[in-house]
Amino acid sequence: MPPINFSRSGRTGPFGKLTAEIPKIRVPDDTKDELERLARAAGITLSEYLRDLLMVHAHGVDVVRALYEERLSAVSRNLDDNGKIAG
């Protein structure tokens, strides 16, 4: 597994800033509708759903999962069992 490198800001995704663009594509209406349904079921926007889907396809689910878990671990270090800041 490649090393996990966090971006500088806590407000960006685990892969860093999202600066690269992918060309716009056209799909049938029913395909877009189904992708929107899947995104809603996951509780995220269509853009987030497609981004995560592409990242999993490009990098593998284990790498993407490890990045998100590492990031979550970093931000939850100082939380108690109830999810509140300990102290």
Rg over alpha carbons:
16 Å
Oligomer: single chain
Task: Describe the main β-sheet briefly.
Answer: none
The helix-and-strand class reads: mainly alpha
Percent range for helical residues?
A: 40-55%
- The H-and-E topology, N to C, reads as HHH
| Strand residue content | under 5%
The outline comes out as elongated
Number of helices: 3
N- to C-terminal separation? 35 Å
Number of strands: 0
As residue ranges, the low-confidence spans are none
Mean pLDDT: 84
Protein name: Ribbon-helix-helix protein CopG domain-containing protein
Domain Ribbon-helix-helix protein CopG: 25-55
Pfam family, one: RHH_1
Structure description:
The chain is 51% helix and 0% strand. It is built from three helices and no strands.
Please provide a brief summary of the model:
This is Ribbon-helix-helix protein CopG domain-containing protein. This protein has 87 residues and is mainly α.
Give me the secondary-structure topology:
Elements: H1 29-42, H2 46-59, H3 61-76
